[in-house]
Write a structure and sequence with these properties.
heterodimer, A: mainly alpha, B: alpha+beta, Helix Hairpins, Immunoglobulin-like, 3 domains, 5-stranded mixed β-sheet, 3-stranded mixed β-sheet, elongated
Chain lengths: 532, 386
């Protein structure tokens, strides 16, 4: 710490420290962004390995590779790691790298807290993953951990899971406070809110969602902890509690949570499509309002995950109507992206390919979401592979594709080198084919009656499960190519210009590539092109 | 219901449109592999129509939106020399594509609401059946004002372990076959009263469009009027632990007279079981029945060799309960052990079965306690509330 201060006085180079301690003690938003992104990629591969185990077991009917106990641990850990370890930290990493550069700020507002909020994560996930090696095994009750399966009937490792979730929650809350404070206080003088890039807007709204719901998650796991160890009965009917209470509290967190994983993706796509269409984003204002509307609606639709728990008809109708309403602002966003592309001058570099695939495949996930909102039909869809197909369509070719699009789009700015375009396109097409072969057939088996979270299935589901598994292996192994492309780009390649992309607008494209260790030590004055 | 009729033409039209557009060349035989079943109740057909209607609407919207995107991607390319236009906002358009989806949603919501109201119509029922979920089987109780004639039985997976572990060929209805199916008469209104003994399960029969969570401590209801005789298969639809994938539901819908004969037989069996509790059993009888009960009820956790899967499912061989005082052994089997996966089997097994299985566990796999329990002793413990 003191070394950094001294350096400030004596040396105008302002470079990073040397060695491993640079990463441990860093308060630089770019370093922390890099840490978040690498951590999230590591978790993506870890959760991906678990998905490979799941799909290998489901390749054929019968139990071949793992036993049901371990299968349940795999589905649970896969979900938890992908949600909390891969997708969320990736977006926080992007926010760290990009928000200060997009609003003309020198760094995040709370740099030391930024360091803490990252370094909590490796401990949280080490603790959670260590439960795989504990007596009784890892958590096996699904990523939604419904009581009483996760309380009275849970393996002893549930306590470690609860503590890990608390740590992740603390990290997320600190990270989102940092984002809010940065955006509200550190914008370049003269930058109005309605002048911010959409990525900054979506992250501002996401950060508020996180601050609102992570404490609810902390509350529900604390209630579990009390039930397990301290004799309370929040979720036990035998003691006067209610197992359904768990689901209400969990989904009051859980539904905003799924928007936490998609709103920043909207921001990424809203940055990329205008660049490669060489045309301004259509309907900027309505995009901001639509994002805010989606965030608001996310708080009032939680029980649509619980249509089969025996809610009275008035409740079912309310949650159905409210859920259907989400289609309106979501539709506005999709129409705006299409209008941005319309009569543009498009080229199809890798980020654009991922962004267009995002719009199409996310919309397909939106369609199945609309179908799931219809209560009578949901009674047939609920807890089948149709649901699995739905949320993987919005999360994998949705959130994950947007993260990959962002990585390709800003990689030249981060590293100063262009990535290998033909390898990038290969990665895109392998991923695109893999994702659809994996998840599209899951709609079919779900409709035909295959429940989710089962290690073995009836014979009529065999063909589509085999196809789905083959797609999953293709998608999974394609990600090693992504790793190779990123490493290759870091090590060298064609030098990138400041603007990198012909149609790119925004403050981050006014600074050199690679972005210097410290940027905007004096605020930018020309804000005309702040949001492209 | 009149509202349902109003939109029936809409749904029929779009379902027709859709099916002729996309699946006219698909063999009808392959249909059930990729789509929802139409089922065998009025409600299930309404749900199917609703599903197809929504699907058609989504496909049409998809064609329009993706069509515009694809045209744009083909025509407005830099490589074709396209020059970017300058427009970037249009309030009229924004209002237009806010209003149109709202109108579509209202059109979707109307039939959905009327179907849901029909499903929630809690009219009088002809037969009430309690459906109780256990880890990992179902118990069906035909509620009867006369407790002596109450028919109650457990329905568990019949698929042998050899088929699951690929040591034998998988037969038809693999994982979807049970020892004792639920039997109901056709054209009668059956009310299912759904609850659970341990964790949350979900009772799901796709052909009836019935799916309701079975929640410990709460009873929820659902109903069906089945129109065609047949065997209908479903599965538990809520993750309930290790063998969640292995607790199917099989319903046999039969004509009324066949149902009456079946019920009379079951009621007679129930009376006989009641009488066996009073009789003195021999060791051989207890061991024989005990083995059956063990294989049906205890084996999934404690395993065929009694070794269990520690620590969740402890071994029964040469240690603990099975070689300790017999009262404790009966008590745990009857009342379960809180905080563990060991359930209270007093709810699912009759006193004779409990006596038999306790005797069996104490005298097999090398356990040689030599003692035995009579059903009357178990009954005494139940009566005294132990």
């Amino acid at each position: 710490m003191s070394a950094v201060i001294e350096e400030h006085h004596d040396d105008h180079h302002h470079g990073p420290d040397k060695g491993i301690l640079r990463w441990v003690f860093t308060t630089n938003h770019k370093d922390i962004g890099t840490l978040y992104l690498w951590f999230s990629f590591l978790m993506f591969l870890t959760g991906g390995c678990m998905a490979m185990v799941i799909r290998a077991e489901l390749f054929q009917p019968g139990l071949q590779i793992v036993q049901p106990e371990f299968f349940n641990q795999m589905t649970t850990m896969h979900g938890l790691i992908m949600v909390f370890g891969a997708v969320m930290p990736a977006f926080v990493g992007l926010a760290n790298w990009l928000v200060p550069m997009m609003i003309g700020a020198p760094d995040m507002a709370l740099p030391r807290m930024n360091n803490y909020s990252f370094w909590i994560l490796p401990f949280a996930f080490s603790m959670m993953l260590s439960s795989l090696f504990m007596e009784g095994g890892a958590p096996n009750f699904g990523w939604t951990f419904y009581a009483p399966l996760s309380t009275e009937y849970a393996p002893p490792s549930v306590t470690f899971f609860i503590f890990a979730v608390h740590l992740m929650g603390i990290s997320s809350i600190m990270g989102s406070i940092n984002v809010v404070v940065t955006i509200l206080n550190l914008r370049a003088p003269g930058m109005r809110l309605m002048q911010m890039p959409l990525f900054v807007w979506t992250w501002l709204i996401t950060a508020y969602l996180l601050i609102a719901v992570m404490p609810v998650l902390a509350g529900v796991v604390t209630m579990m902890l009390m039930d397990i160890h301290f004799g309370t009965a929040f979720f036990s009917a035998g003691g006067g509690g209610d197992p359904v209470l768990f689901q209400h509290v969990f989904w009051f967190f859980g539904h905003p949570e799924v928007y936490i994983m998609i709103l920043p993706a909207f921001g990424v796509v809203s940055a990329i499509i205008p660049t490669f269409a060489r045309k301004r984003l259509f309907g900027y204002d309505s995009m901001v309002y639509a994002t805010a509307s989606i965030a608001f609606l996310s708080f009032i639709v939680w029980a649509h995950h619980m249509f089969t728990v025996g809610i009275p008809i008035a409740g079912e109708l309310y949650f159905m109507y409210a859920t259907m309403l989400i289609a309106v602002p979501t539709g506005v966003k999709v129409f705006n992206w299409v209008a941005t592309m319309w009569r543009g001058s498009m080229s199809f570099e890798t980020p654009m390919l991922f962004a267009i695939a995002f719009v199409i495949l996310f919309t397909i996930g939106g369609f199945s979401g609309l179908m799931l909102a219809i209560v009578p039909a949901d009674f047939q869809y609920h807890d089948t592979y149709f649901v699995v197909a739905h949320f993987h369509y919005v999360l994998v070719p949705g959130s994950v594709f947007s993260i990959m699009a962002a990585a390709y789009y800003w990689l030249p700015k981060w590293t100063g080198n262009m990535y290998d375009e033909s390898l990038g396109k290969t990665h895109f097409w392998l991923s695109f084919i893999g994702v659809n072969v994996t998840f599209f057939p899951q709609h079919f088996v779900g409709l035909a009656g295959m429940p989710r979270r089962i290690p073995d299935y009836a014979l009529q589901f065999a063909d589509y499960n085999m196809i789905s598994s083959m797609g999953a292996f293709l998608f999974g192994f394609s990600q090693l190519l992504f790793l190779f492309i990123v490493i290759k780009c870091i090590r060298g390649g064609k030098k990138a210009t400041s603007q990198v992309w012909e149609g790119a607008h925004g403050l981050e494209w006014t600074i050199p590539s690679p972005a210097p260790y410290h940027t905007f030590s004096t605020p930018p004055e020309d804000l005309r092109e702040a949001h492209g | 219901m009149y509202r349902a009729k109003q939109c029936k033409w809409l749904m029929t039209l779009s379902a027709l449109l859709f099916s002729s557009l996309f699946f006219s060349n698909l063999a009808l035989a392959g249909w059930s592999d990729v789509n929802m079943t139409q089922g065998v109740t009025e409600i299930s057909r309404e749900v199917y129509d609703l599903h197809m209607f929504m699907f058609a609407v989504c496909v049409l919207i998809g064609i329009v939106v993706f069509g515009v995107m694809i045209v744009s991607m083909l025509l407005h390319r830099k490589s074709l020399g396209a020059q970017p236009a300058n427009f970037h906002e249009h309030t009229g358009l924004e209002i237009f594509w806010t209003i149109v989806p709202i109108v579509i949603l209202v059109v979707l919501a109307i039939p959905a609401t009327s179907t849901l109201r029909a499903m929630y119509d809690a009219g009088d029922s002809d037969i009430d059946i309690e459906v109780r979920g256990f880890q990992w089987k179902w118990q069906y109780t035909y509620l009867n004002d006369n407790p002596g004639e109450e028919v109650k039985f457990i329905s568990a997976l019949k698929t042998p372990q050899e088929e699951i572990h690929n040591q034998a060929n998988k037969r038809e209805h693999y994982l979807l076959d049970v020892d004792n199916p639920l039997v109901i008469p056709i054209n009668k209104r059956i009310r299912f009263l759904i609850t659970s003994n341990d964790v949350i399960h979900a009772f799901w029969v796709p052909a009836f469009a019935v799916k309701k969570d079975a929640i410990p401590g709460f009873v929820h209801e659902s109903w069906a009027v089945v129109e065609e005789p047949g065997i209908y298969r479903g599965q538990c639809a809520e993750l309930c632990g290790k063998d969640h994938g292995f607790m199917p539901i099989v319903v046999r819908a039969v004509p009324q007279d066949e149902y009456d004969t079946w019920l009379a037989e079951k009621q007679e069996e129930a009376r006989q079981v009641y009488e066996t509790v009073g009789k003195q059993w021999t060791m051989a009888e207890l061991m024989e029945t005990g083995e059956q009960v063990y294989n049906q009820t205890c084996l999934t956790c404690h395993q065929a060799n009694g070794q269990g899967i520690p620590p969740a499912f402890p071994s029964l061989v040469g240690q603990g309960l099975t070689v300790g005082p017999i009262e404790n052994h009966i008590d745990i089997v009857l009342n379960g052990k809180s905080g563990t996966a060991m359930q209270a089997f007093g709810a699912q097994l009759n006193p004779a079965q409990i006596a038999a299985v306790v005797t069996y566990e104490r005298n097999t796999w090398g356990n040689a306690m030599g003692d035995m329990v009579q059903p009357s002793k178990v009954n005494e413990m139940i009566q005294s509330g132990q």
